[in-house]
Amino acid sequence: MSERVTVGLAERSYDILIGPGLIETAGAEIAARLPGIRAAIVTDGNVAAAHLARLEAGLATGGIPSVALTLAPGEKTKSFAALQEVVDGVLAARLERGDAVVALGGGVIGDLAGFAAGIVRRGMNFVQIPTSLLAQVDSSVGGKTGINSAHGKNLVGVFHQPRLVLADTGVLDTLPMREFRAGYAEVAKYGLIDRPDFFAWLEANWQEVFSGGPARTRAIAMSCQAKADVVARDEFETGDRALLNLGHTFGHALEAATGYEGERLVHGEGVAIGMALAHRFSARLNLASPDDAARVEAHLQAVGLPWRMSDIPGELPDAERLLGYIQQDKKVSRGALTFILTHGVGRSFIAKDVPASEVRSFLEENHPG
Ligand SMILES: NC(=O)c1ccc[n+]([C@@H]2O[C@H](COP(=O)([O-])OP(=O)(O)OC[C@H]3O[C@@H](n4cnc5c(N)ncnc54)[C@H](O)[C@@H]3O)[C@@H](O)[C@H]2O)c1
Ligand SMILES: [Zn+2]
Question: Ligand 1: residues within 6 Å at CB?
């Protein structure tokens, strides 16, 4: 049984299908929406080993010929060099504008392949087949694509919505547990932004979400619906789509500070620590009760996620350097710091003009060094 969430963007609306076995039926689902096309599958080595052959067969069954481009796994693949490889691969396969780039992988592959789809021939069709929990609940939905620069994460990219998202819950069986947990941070994020009932449901049911079955499918569908609602309201992040960045200002700074080395910190782990810090910082600014910060920390700890800076192995740059990374983040406008802060669980808001001095003292107090 698959669930369906629709992202309502007028003529660019699209479906997200969530459930087991969708890789096998991918060809039929895609052909029903994009008849007569060919496809370039973009994937990484880990995902290709586990799922590429099944997707190629699934596409062929639906009458869609495909070529595959397999890249190195990891955040470093969100680079200009990898982008060029994908662009050249798609052109070498002589795909046309109406053909599709199909991302089969986690958020790295989705962001990279989506960017390539957005610029090759000024915009090709794009289909997301997310294979990590993070990609299923977050990065595959909403049309943000891009790569990293030496100046920071996600600084180069375009908005390019997919035509279809197929979240096959069966592929999560091969995902390493650490990656599953990291994706779970984004699931919890939706509760913390504005769905306190969902957060309470997760506190009660997280073990079933981890072990699979209907609770997992429910949590993914709930998360996709939460993201779809925000995206439909504010596609280009001129307003409250920024709420989705809860935990990400601190999180991105920590990812940059650890050199995007997945061994030390993966994206969702940075978000987990960032969400805990955002709640603790809100309490320090007397915007929320310290009890709410403690509740968030307790849940992250219960599921086995890192929640404080000292949980990151190795040394971190000092508070001043961390502040520098925060100031480089794209959510800084004209020098004023913009943070997603909270009045409590499920009551997040966009805070503009947060004084850098407050952030600096907070980082100094919480710094493990
Ligand atoms: N575009 C957006 O709106 C958006 C939102 C959130 C995050 N992101 C981006 O997403 C990226 C993180 O995504 P991610 O956590 O999926 O990382 P990822 O793509 O690197 O995947 C994590 C790891 O899991 C492996 N993997 C993925 N699926 C697998 C499977 N089914 N079986 C076995 N191994 C599998 C990958 O090879 C990789 O090693 C970051 O670059 C972040 O900036 C984008
Ligand atoms: Zn994220």
Answer: 44, 46-47, 50, 73-75, 78, 105-109, 111, 131-132, 134-135, 138-139, 142, 144, 153-154, 171, 174-175, 179, 182, 266-268
Each of the 369 residues of the chain gets a pLDDT tens digit; together they read 789 999 999 899 999 999 999 999 999 999 999 999 999 999 999 999 999 999 999 999 999 999 999 999 998 999 999 999 999 999 999 999 999 999 999 999 999 999 999 999 999 999 999 999 999 999 999 999 999 998 878 899 999 999 999 999 999 999 999 999 999 999 999 999 999 999 999 999 999 999 888 899 999 999 999 999 999 998 888 888 999 999 999 999 999 899 877 789 999 999 999 999 999 999 999 999 999 999 999 999 999 999 999 999 999 999 999 999 998 765 555 567 999 999 999 999 999 989 999 999 999 999 998
Among the bound ligands, the one closest to the CA of 162: 1
Element (H or E) spanning 190, and its range? helix 177-194
Contact (CB, 8 A) for 346 and 191: yes
61 by Cβ neighbours in 10 Å (0-12 / 13-18 / 19+) ranks as middle
Residue 120 is classified by DSSP as: G
Q: How far apart are CA 119 and CA 157, in angstroms?
A: 9
**251, 252, 255, 259 alpha-carbon torsion, rounded to 10°:** -160
Q: Which residue(s) pair with 152 in the sheet? A: 149
Provide the CA 201 distance to its chain's centre, in angstroms: 22
The strand pairing partners of 138, in sequence order, are none
Q: Which of 131, 254, 275 to mutate to test the pocket of ligand 1 (most atoms within 8 A of CB)?
A: 131
Say what the pTM is. 0.94
Burial of 4 (0-12, 13-18, 19+ CB in 10 A): exposed
DSSP label at residue 23: T
